[in-house]
Design a protein that fits this description.
The protein is an alpha/beta fold and about 270 residues long. Helices cover about 35% and strands about 25% of the residues.
Length: about 270
């Protein structure tokens, strides 16, 4: 099979640059285009030079139509509104769409799944092997421990992150809820302030920290009477997400049309 031609959207951002580097380093993929908004200061710059991997001869452009006409897939870690637009383009052209965008509302998620029908989409709150393995362990722990063990999800990210809880925290919360056989929306506690009263049994709590340059730290706590189990993951390099996204693209290329997760890509969905 020929090399998979991948276009990176949001190419000038932190994850965009990481994705460009990952595509150039991976076997079986080639960077076909790098896309930014028309007003971006990065338009015209070489994508490789911007991402620190040398001149690639791929200038950053705002011409999405031309980019998609010569690509097999889209790597998309942008924003909810943009991701919905890219999803329509991917579906219209039969392209693989890899989505690491977080902060989507329930309505936006529904629209995304509707628009994505008939194409190969992989969406995850986190693309790393370690985090998805952690989610599998959280699911098993939540199923094994009864609700005498309170579940708390603690996360920290850099000060520039705009959504909270993080997509990874929600992914872990969903894993815990699945293990318990409950609906996360109905048992999720996002804020505590003032006289909150005793902690309701069975709830899943979230605590969010922001500061500095922290890439990502997540811990799921199972707190029982006289004992506590902590399951944690610490990310020291944004490239783990980018490499996971490229892995997902190569995997999705060989699959039937469908809406997949990283658990599917890594064989952890069972």
């Amino acid at each position: 099979m020929s090399e998979m031609r991948l276009v990176v959207v949001g190419a000038g951002g932190r994850m965009g640059r990481a994705l460009i580097q990952a595509v150039t380093e991976a076997e079986g993929t080639v960077l076909s285009a790098a896309i930014e908004r028309p007003e971006s200061p990065y338009i015209g710059q070489d994508a490789g030079e911007l991402s620190g991997c040398g001149n690639l001869g791929v200038p950053i452009s705002s011409d999405l139509d031309d980019a998609l006409a010569n690509s097999d897939g889209i790597l998309d870690f942008t924003a909810p509104k943009a991701t919905l637009a890219f999803s329509k383009q991917a579906a219209a052209r039969g392209l693989v769409h890899i989505i690491g965008t977080t902060g989507m509302s329930g309505t936006e998620e529904e629209k995304l799944q509707s628009v994505s029908k008939g194409t190969k989409t992989v969406k995850s709150g986190n693309m790393s092997l370690g985090v998805n393995l952690l989610a599998a362990l959280v699911r098993k722990a939540a199923a094994a421990l009864d609700d005498d063990f309170d579940i708390e999800v603690l996360e920290m990210h850099h000060k520039h992150k705009v959504d909270a809880p993080s997509g990874t925290a929600l992914l872990l919360g969903e894993a815990a809820a699945e293990g318990r056989g409950i609906n996360l929306e109905e048992h999720s506690v996002r804020t505590r302030d003032g006289q909150t009263g005793a902690r309701p049994k069975g709830d899943i709590g979230f605590a969010t920290l922001r500061g500095g340059s922290v890439i990502g730290e997540h811990t799921v706590m199972f707190a029982g009477e006289g004992e506590r189990i902590d399951l944690s993951h610490i990310s020291n390099d944004r490239q783990i997400y980018a490499r996971g996204a490229v892995k997902a693209a190569l995997w999705a290329r060989k699959q039937l049309a469908g809406f997949y997760s990283m658990a599917d890509v890594l064989g952890l969905s069972q």
